[in-house]
Write a structure and sequence with these properties.
globular; 18 helices; three-stranded antiparallel sheet; 10 strands; about 45% helix
């Protein structure tokens, strides 16, 4: 591979994300679309390096600050291009386990004068840890301090370390079998015949994970329903629903309908009141459970933004609970690992609605117990961090 081309693309994308506030996936797509000379293996290397550096940015910055501090230098006082080159080289040492010499060679000749810093980065015990336990936890796990604090309070420091270790790894590529077209076993056989290394997912009966190295919930539900019954997808943003239409046609889904429901009016929900067997609320959330797929989000999010979600989630639960018929189920789901967005929202709803009661969240066959709520964790179940709670309307 051509190290200079890879380095140039990585640093351009990283600059757009860190300094200009671009989303990593969009910046990556833009640069790779333009750089047509990059080979497929080089594109993969660029993608891996960008996402890897963003995941480990906190750890890398801490080690570089400590290393530079031994000579009374500060990372933030260096020229921006030098900062980014040093971060890239340090990531190669910390994340890719390259030797300091190899990392300096891949990062370019400009790094030669900083080889002493990379030597220190490669031996973090010589640099020590912050005196404050929370600062030390944040540096070790590459988490913002506020997030290290949140998870250590809710999960404990040991569990936070294990969770962060999983979130700092590349997320697996998982696809869903379209049961309207084929079974999961047929999909696995077809993929293996093409040379792909795939395995069935452990929890989902539809999923296939690519081990050598998704699809919308509406389409997944329609597939499981075998195109029978009535499926109504609601969203306040009609543009999201428009994106589902061509995918539904390709998937052969025809038992669904889309309803754009503005926040200011329930007029489009009135005729559904008390009619639904199941209402699934895929609630807007902080996305803290999906940080390995969106590593830049941890540096973009602020605690105040995370705290803005529970009131909105409660309002959505209140609004759509009216659609559940007596005996029907209300399923509340997020992709967050945060009790404020999950357990506390559920608890507040149940306290205010005696006509709803907890119900079994997942089939016993899944193997996660028969409780009414489940928190999936990357380091335990190998999934993203999902929360699921089920409630049944008694009257």
């Amino acid at each position: 591979m051509r190290a200079q081309l890879i380095r140039t693309a990585v640093l351009e994308i990283y600059e757009e994300v860190r300094r200009e506030g671009a989303r990593a996936d969009q910046a990556l797509q833009s640069v790779l679309r333009r750089e047509k000379l990059l080979r497929s293996v080089e594109r993969r290397a660029v993608s891996d390096a960008v996402y890897g550096l963003l995941r480990l940015q906190g750890r890398v910055d801490h080690l570089l600050q400590r290393a530079l501090g031994t000579r009374k230098l500060a990372l933030e006082k260096l020229a921006t291009p030098t900062q980014h080159l040093l971060r890239y080289a340090a990531y190669l040492v910390v994340g890719e386990r390259q030797s300091p010499e190899s990392a300096a060679g891949l990062a370019g000749p400009e790094i030669a004068t900083w080889s002493w810093a990379l030597e220190l980065v490669a031996d973090p015990e010589r640099l020590g840890a912050p005196d404050d336990p929370l600062d030390a936890l944040a540096a070790e796990t590459s988490l913002p301090r506020w997030l290290a604090k949140l998870w250590s309070e809710q999960l404990g420091s040991g569990e936070t370390r294990a969770l962060a270790a999983a979130l700092n790894q590349r997320a697996p590529l998982t696809v869903r079998a379209n049961l309207l077209r084929n079974t999961r076993d047929e999909l696995i056989a077809a993929l293996r015949a093409e040379g792909s290394r795939v395995e069935p997912t452990r929890l989902s009966p539809w999923g296939v994970t690519f081990t050598g190295r998704t699809n919308g919930k509406t389409l997944a539900l329609a597939s499981e329903m075998r195109n029978k019954g009535r499926l109504v997808a609601c969203d306040r943003d009609g543009r999201r629903l428009d994106k589902v239409r061509p995918r539904a046609r390709r998937a052969g889904v025809h038992n669904w309908e889309a309803r754009s429901v503005p926040e200011s009016s329930d007029a489009r929900l009135v005729e559904l009141s008390g009619q639904a067997d199941v209402v699934l609320i895929d609630a807007p959330c902080s996305g803290l459970g999906a940080l390995r797929r969106n590593p830049d989000a941890r540096w973009r999010l602020e605690e105040s933004e995370v705290d803005s979600f529970p009131p909105r989630q409660g309002e959505i639960l209140e609004r759509y609970a009216r659609l559940v018929k007596p005996g029907g189920r209300l399923v509340y789901a997020t992709c967050s690992i945060n009790r404020r967005e999950n357990e506390e929202v559920r608890s507040a709803f149940l306290s205010a609605h005696p006509d709803f009661e907890p119900a079994q969240a997942l089939p016993q066959s899944v193997g996660l117990g028969v409780g009414s709520e489940v928190q999936l964790l990357p380091h335990r179940q190998g999934t993203d961090g999902f929360y699921i709670a089920t409630m049944r309307r008694s009257r």
